[in-house]
Amino acid sequence: MNVRRRHISGIAIAAATALGLGTLSACSDSASAANTDKFDVVAAFYPLQYLAEQIGGDHVHVTSLTKPGQEPHDLEISAQQTAALGESDAVLYLKNLQPAVDDAVSQSEVRTKIDAASLTTLEKHGNEVGGHAASHDTSKNDELAGLDPHIWLDPVRYAQVAQGVGKAFEKADPKNAADYRTRTAALVTKLDALNTEFKTGLADTRTKVFITTHAAFGYLAERYGLTEEAINGLDPESEPSAERVKNLEKMAKADGVTTVFYETLVSDKTAKTIAADAHLKTDVLDPIEGITKKSRGKDYFSVQQANLKALQKALGSK
Q1: How deeply is 66 buried, as exposed, middle or buried, from its count of CB atoms within 10 A (0-12, 13-18, 19+)?
Q2: At residue 80, does pLDDT exceed 50?
Q3: Residue 230 CB-density burial (10 A; 0-12 exposed, 13-18 middle, 19+ buried)
Q4: DSSP assignment of 273-306, as one string?
Q5: Which of 149, 165, 202 has the alpha carbon at shortest distance from 55?
Q6: Is the pLDDT of residue 143 over 80?
């Protein structure tokens, strides 16, 4: 066993000391749980956990900092998680999505730090994304604009991240490099096929505009020639202004929008209120930030296919 990994990191000890001796024991247990005879990977949240598992196969032991059903944007890191992070071989995270994770990673001594945001391109998105010229929308969308972290919802960008993760695994664990390379290629092939499904399935629809609770689907909208109109900006917990709600109702009527989409990990109250006022339907469009019993699928691919069906229904696929 690597001597480095027999010792709890200084950060973990400091965190445990701050919480008392009782917590020190818990931190030690958590750290040893990550200290296996496999390539130990800590993933920040589900889409990155899924990549690590698919690429690593039997060679990796993957743990996620974000529990199923937990909203990843709001994650706080526990002392136990800090300890496990310090004892892992690699951490896979997405910078600027989870500030607490960014802080923990920057202080950690983990050898391999993989920032998914550095493996593809990020864009600034507001609460309207896509090619739609919304002349009836007078709200200042740029005020809510920021770098959009939701790259995994675009199969093409997600494939780029997968390739980068595969190369990082090869470098960090060279004895299993050939297997990582093979598994990465297989995953990219599946993502290419998913991209084709979306491209074909959304090519001919009655409308190209859809409404969501928060701006998670901007990359997907741009990829397939759609326009996402989000009730909120990139923050799923923010509240829309009265002007924004009024503009959404006008836009829905002008563009033949039938459905307001909400998601599984955030309250559907706002979406249902707006839908009722505008005489629209509601449905689920899942940002796949975690898999729960409410998810329409058991993994990334099955939930994405459910998302495609929901979009086809709402947009009027011909």
Answers
A1: buried
A2: yes
A3: buried
A4: HHHHHTT-EEEE----S---TTSSSSSHHHHHHH
A5: 165
A6: no
Least confident interval from 12-16, 56-60, 160-164, 294-298: 12-16
Most confident of 27-41, 116-130, 210-224: 210-224
HEC string for 121-158: CCCEECCEEECCCCCCCCCCHHHHCEECCCHHHCHHHH
Task: Indicate whether 256 pLDDT > 60.
Answer: yes
DSSP state of 172: H
Structure tokens at 167: 């190369």
Show Cβ contacts of residue 83 under 8 Å, excluding neighbours closer than 6 positions: 8, 9, 12, 15, 16, 27, 28, 30, 31
- Residue 26: pLDDT band (50, 70, 90) is very low
pTM: 0.84
Give yes or no for a contact between 130 and 221, defined as CB atoms under 8 angstroms apart.
yes
- The token pair that represents 270 in the structure block: 């706002």
Measured CA to CA, the distance from residue 21 to residue 61 in angstroms comes to: 28
Average confidence (pLDDT) over 299-311: 98
The bridge status of strand 146-147 relative to strand 124-125 is antiparallel
Residue 205 is classified by DSSP as: B
Does an H or E element contain 307, and which?
Answer: helix 300-315
User: How many CB atoms sit inside 10 A of residue 197's CB?
Assistant: 14
| Residue 138 pLDDT exceeds 80 | no
Single-letter code of the amino acid located at 290 = G
Residue 145 has pLDDT above 60, yes or no: no
- Whether residue 131 has pLDDT greater than 70: no
- For residues 257 and 210, the answer to whether their CB atoms sit within 8 Å is yes
Paired tokens of 58: 């039997």
